[in-house]
Amino acid sequence: MKGEGAAAALRQLPTGVCLLGILTARAEPYASTVSWVVPLSFEPPMLGVALEPRSKTLALVRAMGDFAISVPRAESRSDVIKLGRSSAEVADKMAGVTLGTTDGGLPIVAGAAGWLACRVVGEQRVGDHVLVIAEVGAGWVADGTAPPAWSYWGGSG
């Protein structure tokens, strides 16, 4: 298959693991694990997140426009793994997951090391994913924050 070596090498790039939280049209919290999140700009503050085109997460982001990215700590590992499963595979992947909220009420992983409240400003199809471009309206970092749950520099929790 063309690109097998490139795909294998791409999987070796260090990425952080975050949670994308959003409120549905019924004001129900929904969250999904995302690993392709990237800062795009400091002024204005912006980030990008790559999502699968057929995912429930992308459909909700398009419909609602506002979402939060939270940085989980190692103790949130089981929730992060559970929320990484496809909604198509699990009847209610939110069951038993403990969430907190941003100042604006968007869902975040409980005990997050930090969060960013975002508003979608655009999107771009990029290969087999959609890059959602968002402006960051607010952010927060916990006092005495430990390294992220997973990162190249911080190990794997």
Describe the structure.
This protein is mainly β and 157 residues long. It has a single domain, classed as Pnp Oxidase, Chain A, CATH 2.30.110. It has a seven-stranded antiparallel beta sheet. It has a two-stranded antiparallel ribbon with strand order 6-7. Strand 6 and strand 7 form a beta hairpin. The longest helix has 9 residues.
Strands, helices and their partners?
Elements: H1 4-10, E1 18-23, E2 29-34, E3 37-42, E4 45-51, H2 56-64, E5 66-71, H3 77-83, E6 99-101, E7 107-109, E8 114-126, E9 129-141
Antiparallel strand pairs: 1-2, 1-5, 3-4, 4-9, 5-8, 6-7, 8-9
Short description:
This protein is mainly β. Helices cover 15% and strands 40% of the residues.
Essential attributes:
single chain, 157 residues, mainly beta, Pnp Oxidase, Chain A, 7-stranded antiparallel beta sheet, two-stranded antiparallel sheet, 3 helices, 9 strands, 15% helix, 40% strand, globular, disordered C terminus
